[in-house]
Design goal:
113 residues; 4-stranded antiparallel beta sheet; 2 helices; 4 strands; globular
C-alpha cells in the first residue's frame, strides 16, 4: 500500500483531449545510487478518461463534480514492482511542450512486531 501523491498543477481536460494519446507517463527509481526508468509509456495504454467517466456516471452528464478526482491506473513497472529510496514521476505533453513532475524520497520504517 502506498500514498497517492498528486501534483499541485493541473491541465484542463479540454486542453489535452484532442491529443490525449500523445501524453506520456514516466517514472524513475534510484537503484544502487543510479536513476533508472521504472515506468514509461503513452497514456493510450490505459483506459481513455471518457470511458472511465461514462462507467462512473449513470446519466449522460459525464462531468465530475468540482473537487472530485478520479484515478485511472498505472503502467507496468519495468523489471517488476520493487522498493526504492527515491521515486520521481512525470506527465509529459509533447504537443504543448510541458510537463508536470514531482519526486520524493522514501523513509523505511522499522518493523516493530
Amino acid at each position: 500500500m502506498c500514498d497517492k501523491p498528486i501534483a499541485s498543477v493541473f491541465w484542463a481536460y479540454d486542453e489535452v483531449v484532442p491529443h490525449w494519446d500523445r501524453l506520456i507517463l514516466r517514472s524513475h527509481v534510484v537503484e544502487g545510487g543510479k536513476r533508472a526508468v521504472y515506468q514509461e509509456g503513452a497514456v493510450s495504454a490505459m483506459m481513455h478518461p471518457q470511458a472511465l467517466l461514462e462507467r462512473h456516471s449513470a446519466s449522460k452528464d459525464t462531468r465530475l463534480s468540482d473537487g472530485t478526482l478520479m484515478f485511472g491506473g498505472t503502467l507496468a513497472a519495468h523489471g517488476g514492482v520493487r522498493p526504492t529510496t527515491e521515486f520521481a514521476f512525470e506527465l509529459e505533453d509533447p504537443v504543448l511542450g510541458r510537463k508536470i513532475a514531482h519526486a520524493y524520497r522514501v523513509r523505511t520504517l522499522p518493523i516493530l512486531g
